[in-house]
Each structure stands twice: as structure tokens, then as C-alpha cells.
Amino acid sequence: MRMERQRKVKPMRRVRTQRDVVRDVMLSANECGAWLTLAELGAMTRYPETSISAQLRHLKKPQFGNYELEKMPRMRAGVDLGDGHGVEWEYRLTRRRRLVRKRVGVVRVRTQRDVVRDVMLSANECGAWLTLAELGAMTRYPETSISAQLRHLKKPKFGNYELEKQPRTPAGGDLNDGHGVEWEYRLTRRRRLVRKRVSVARVAAASALEKPESGLSFAASDISSAATIC
Predict the structure, then answer these.
(1) Pairwise CA distance, residues 133 & 185, whole Å
(2) pLDDT digit string (tens) for 135-163?
(3) Count of C-beta atoms within a 10 Å radius of residue 132
(4) 121 CB contacts (<8 Å, ≥6 apart)?
């Protein structure tokens, strides 16, 4: 019988795709704290902007890494972005944090709600009220998300916190007309009523001590008469 020679099969080398290149560039820029536009990504990777935009959308899907993609308008000196025309968007790609399970338990990952809660409680300890714009500058979250998280913190399942708001009065400003009002917020913990449990034995002992002396003397006479009969 002829011995069949076993051929050594070399493992196939995976070819880097456009998605891999765009992902690595974005993550490297995130480590440096940089946000990149589609034009800058195109200049660095030599890919068309339409392909880069499609790859960024793919990276948000679970089968491609479930990355978190954020975007914000790039502010330019002397350019008014209020009309929405001529806005150039810049992007940041980050890895979503997962729950790391250990033998002892599960380590919970901090969410947007946790960050907003801690910032608001720290400001409350200093006696400061914060606006949505100030919270956005401190946390880098959009104001709409911060407003939603503040509403969630009022719910019992998220801590049942007390949220107060008041208009911030600008220097020399008149708020009687209601226009141009900027609201500031304060988050505080609600005080809980602690109910003490009273045992049944203590209640019975207290009720026995409150009985009148006549009843006790009557019971004592019954015991003495029972002893004489015996």
C-alpha cells in the first residue's frame, strides 16, 4: 500500500478590508482625542467618502463589532451654523463597554445616566446649579440626551431623585416676557422614611403593663383560692 503524503495546508491569511482600515484609523484617532471628517478620512485612506460613510454605518452593527459612532458639527471661525447650511460633520468611533463577568460577580459599566447623575450630585454638594449647555461641555454628551437622562433619574427604578429647575437670570436681563430663558437644574436625593419593625413580644409586654391594678388583684385572689382548694 502506498502511503499517502500529507500535504501541509497553510492557513489562509485574512485580507484587510475597507472596514478594517477605517475602523483602525478611527480608533487610533480616538486614542489621541481627535474627531475626523469624511474628507480627512478620505485623504488618509484614499477611499471615497461614500464608501467611508457606509463603512462607518456598518461598524455600528453587532456583526461588525457593535461600535459606537458619534458625530458633531465642526465649528469654524467666523462661520454661522445656525441655518444648517455648509455644516461639515466630524466623527468619533469608540468601543462599547461590555459587562465583564468575574467569578465573584458582575462589574457594571458606567452609562450616560451614571455620569450625568454623578456630575449633578457633585455640583449639588458645591451648591451649584448647572444648565444643559454646561453639562454638555463637561460630559461631551448632546443636550437632548442629558435632558432625557435627567428625566429618567426621577423614576423610582433609576433612583427616584428629585430634579429642580429654575431660570438663570442673566446680568441685566429681564425674564418677565419669558423669551430667552435659560434653565438651570439641581439634582438631589430624596429622603426616605425608615420604618422600624416592632416585635409582637414587645407589644404584648407593653399591653400587659397598661392593665389596671384591679385586674391584677383579681387574678391574684383567684390564684390564692386555687391554692387553698388544693
Answers:
(1) 11
(2) 999 889 999 999 999 999 999 999 999 99
(3) 19
(4) 187, 188, 189
pLDDT, tens only, 187-229 = 999 876 666 665 666 666 666 666 555 554 544 555 455 444 4
CA distance 123 to 117: 10
Between residues 204 and 16, which one has the greater pLDDT? Answer: 16
Q: Cell digits for 186? A: 439641581
Secondary structure element (H or E) that encloses residue 186, with its range: strand 182-188
- For cell 469624511, name the residue: 38
Sheet harboring 162-168: ordered strands across?
Answer: 130-131, 182-188, 162-168
Domains of the chain: 18-77+86-96 (1.10.10), 110-188 (1.10.10.10)
